[in-house]
Each structure stands twice: as structure tokens, then as C-alpha cells.
Specification:
The protein is an alpha+beta fold. The chain has three domains: about 5-165, 2-Layer Sandwich (Beta-Lactamase); about 185-280, 2-Layer Sandwich (Beta-Lactamase); about 285-350, Orthogonal Bundle (Arc Repressor Mutant, subunit A), CATH 1.10.10.10. It has helices at about 5-20, 25-35, 60-65, 75-80, 100, 105-115, 145-180, 205-210, 225-235, 285-295, 300-310, 315-320, 325-340, 345-350; strands at about 40-45, 50-55, 90, 115-125, 130-135, 185-190, 195-200, 210-215, 215-220, 245, 255-260, 270-280. The strands form three sheets. Strands 2-1-5-4-3 form a five-stranded antiparallel sheet, covered by helices on one side. A hairpin with a 2-residue loop joins strand 1 (about 40-45) and strand 2. Helix 11 crosses helix 13 (about 325-340), helix 11 packs across helix 14 and helix 12 (about 315-320) crosses helix 13 (about 325-340). The protein starts with a helix and ends with a helix.
């Protein structure tokens, strides 16, 4: 049985990791050591497959599992989705009689990678829940009653830390998206599988105009663009490149995929952000910001905004039902307050507030 000191150390690491996501690899390693597991992993499972959150560099075992598409042939992985949350379960408890001997997963993968036994538990009841799994070597045998007691002694601490980290990550990325929305930026948030999970108000029209959903993933009509989105969703590697989203009704939009590059963002649902620049529309300045910055009246801010949007003095007068001379008078006041002398200079100034 693991020394109580090792279990206490693992609990301490978990408490730190809950508020300091970069400490999770250390915490998971301490858990595995305390529990005598060959590999102790944190996974997110869903109908689409298994995603290994930690350890991020587990070597041959994890790579072989992912590249060989073993999740679809792994009876303990697929059936784990029906496990009751927080109950520690051995793989033998979810296998049919004789299945271990007949399953190619156990005969091939588990035997070759020396992980024939696992004891795991589910955190939460969402469609893509988290799982803590202690993968055991053949010479260790299946988890005994004493092993399960050790798992139970640390389970509540691990669950609380994982849930808190998940909530903090979700709040952080919601704040990021809210910030882009407040700044008037067109940004789409994708989860790690490429599904759209959020968009700013300015991005919604572009989302429907330039993208389609293909098997749940967001895609474009451009193969190069799709490749860049996939690259942004990958961990590591070269950064994605910007690409043009063509349009039959305008100049299109430039899409810049931004990878969630933080190595500590283990629990984040957001895998990448897509920043869109609509080439068919000039950026609209924030009139409230304009008024505050230059002490403009509402009428002056409105006229300045219309000039920035490309309208002429005559068009503004006609649309407002006023005289051209009145618009020129208001515009002259705007020039004086902003320190510019020509409409071109005013447009350039307003572009910084777009």
C-alpha cells in the first residue's frame, strides 16, 4: 500500500493545480506514483472518441491509442460513457464474460502496451465527461480492494480540483469572447473538435455567410482554409495562416485562425478562435467612445460616424432631411475638436476607433 505521505503529497499537488493549471502535470504524476499506476491519465470521452488531456506527452502508449483509432475497438472506453459518476470501476466490471479473451483490443493493444487493467471513475454527467484512469501493468494485476480504497481516498480531491479548473477556464474564455464582442470584433470560438461554440454579434452574419457544418465541424468551401483551421486546432506545430473567404456578393472576408496556445489551458473547451475581417464593410467607429474622446455632442458624433462610413456631406444632409450648410457647420466643429483639417484625416482618425 502506498505510504500515507505519498497520498498527502498528491492531495497537496491537486489543491495547487485547481487554481494553477500549469501544475496539473505534476499533480497527475504524483497521483500515479501514490496509486502505483503504470500510467495515470485524465481523459475527456465522448461519442466522437477519446481525448487525452493529461499527460500531454505520454509517449508510445497514448500515441498508439490515438493513431490506431483504438477507442472504437476499446470496450472499456466506449462503455465508460454509461458509468455512474464518481463510482470507481474496474474494466472487468464492464466486460461481458469471456470478452477479455476474445477482444482484439485486449489481445493486441492492451497486451502489447502492457496496460491490461484499468480502474477509473467519471467526473460529472455531461455528454463529454472527464475520466481519471489508473492504467495498470500485467504484473500489477487488477485493482484490489486496497487499491480501490487508495483511489477512493483521493477521488474527491481530484474531482473538486478538475471541476474548479474547468469552471475557471470556461469563465476565462467567456470573458475573452465578451471582450471581443464589446470591442466590436468579429470572432468565432471553436471547441477542440472544430465545432462552433460561440460567436460575437459582428461575427454571426459572417458565420452564416462563409461557413458550413460538416459532420459537426465548421468548414469552408476552400481546402486551404480548412487546412489552416485544422492546424489551429492542433497542439504544437506551425501557427495557422490567414486565408480569404471569397464572396459572390462582396469582397469577402479575411479569416485569421488563432490557436489556443496556452499549455496550461488543459480543460478549456475552446481550441481556437477565428478572427474575421469583412472586406466589404468599413469598420464602424464606436460613437460613444468618439464622443468621450473628443467631447463631441451627439449630433457631432453622428456626423463624424457617417463621414467615417464613407458618406458625403450632401448624402448626410439628404438622409437627415436637413440643409447641407447645417451639416458643414457641424462638421467644422468636429474638425476643430478632433484637430483635423480634411475629411480624409477624419476618416483615418476614426479608423483607429473601429
Amino acid at each position: 500500500m502506498a505510504a500515507p505521505r505519498a497520498l498527502c503529497s498528491a492531495v497537496g499537488h491537486l489543491e495547487r493545480a485547481a487554481l494553477e493549471p500549469s501544475h496539473w502535470p505534476t499533480a497527475l504524476s504524483a497521483m500515479g506514483e501514490a496509486l502505483g499506476a503504470r500510467i495515470f491519465a485524465l481523459l475527456r470521452l465522448g461519442e466522437a472518441g477519446a481525448e487525452v488531456l493529461l499527460p500531454t506527452h505520454a509517449g508510445e502508449h497514448i500515441e498508439a491509442y490515438a493513431q490506431g483509432d483504438w477507442f472504437q475497438r476499446d470496450p472499456r472506453g466506449r462503455r465508460a460513457l454509461s458509468m455512474r459518476p464518481d463510482r470507481i470501476t474496474n474494466d472487468d466490471e464492464i466486460l461481458a464474460e469471456g470478452e477479455r479473451e476474445t477482444s482484439d483490443f485486449y489481445r493486441d493493444f492492451a497486451a502489447r502496451q502492457d496496460v491490461p487493467y484499468v480502474a477509473s471513475w467519471r467526473v460529472g454527467a455531461s455528454q463529454s465527461p472527464l475520466f481519471f484512469s489508473a492504467m495498470r501493468a500485467a504484473n500489477a494485476g487488477p485493482a484490489t480492494f486496497a487499491d480501490r480504497r487508495r483511489l477512493a481516498s483521493i477521488r474527491a480531491h481530484a474531482n473538486a480540483a478538475a471541476v474548479l479548473s474547468s469552471h475557471l477556464e470556461k469563465a476565462r474564455f467567456n470573458g475573452v469572447l465578451d471582450g471581443f464582442d464589446a470591442a466590436g470584433k468579429a470572432v468565432i470560438a471553436l471547441d477542440r473538435h472544430g465545432r462552433a461554440i460561440g460567436a460575437t454579434a459582428r461575427a454571426l452574419p459572417l458565420l452564416h455567410q462563409h461557413f458550413v457544418e460538416t459532420q459537426g465541424r465548421l468548414s469552408t468551401t476552400d481546402a486551404f482554409g480548412d487546412a489552416q483551421i485544422r492546424r489551429a486546432l492542433e497542439r504544437g506545430g506551425e501557427p495557422a495562416k490567414a486565408f480569404l473567404l471569397p464572396s459572390t456578393t462582396g469582397r469577402g472576408a479575411v479569416c485569421t485562425p488563432i490557436r489556443n496556445v496556452s499549455e496550461s489551458a488543459i480543460f478549456a473547451d475552446v481550441g481556437a478562435l477565428l478572427h474575421l475581417a469583412d472586406l466589404s464593410q468599413a469598420p464602424a467607429p464606436d460613437l460613444a467612445m468618439l464622443a468621450v474622446a473628443f467631447d463631441l455632442t451627439p449630433a457631432e458624433a453622428e456626423i463624424a460616424g457617417l463621414i467615417g462610413a464613407g458618406q458625403s456631406v450632401e448624402e448626410i444632409a439628404r438622409d437627415r432631411g436637413g440643409a447641407v450648410a447645417t451639416v458643414r457647420t457641424i462638421l467644422a466643429s468636429v474638425f476643430r475638436k478632433t484637430g483635423v483639417h480634411r475629411q480624409g484625416e477624419l476618416v483615418h482618425l476614426l479608423s483607429r476607433l473601429g
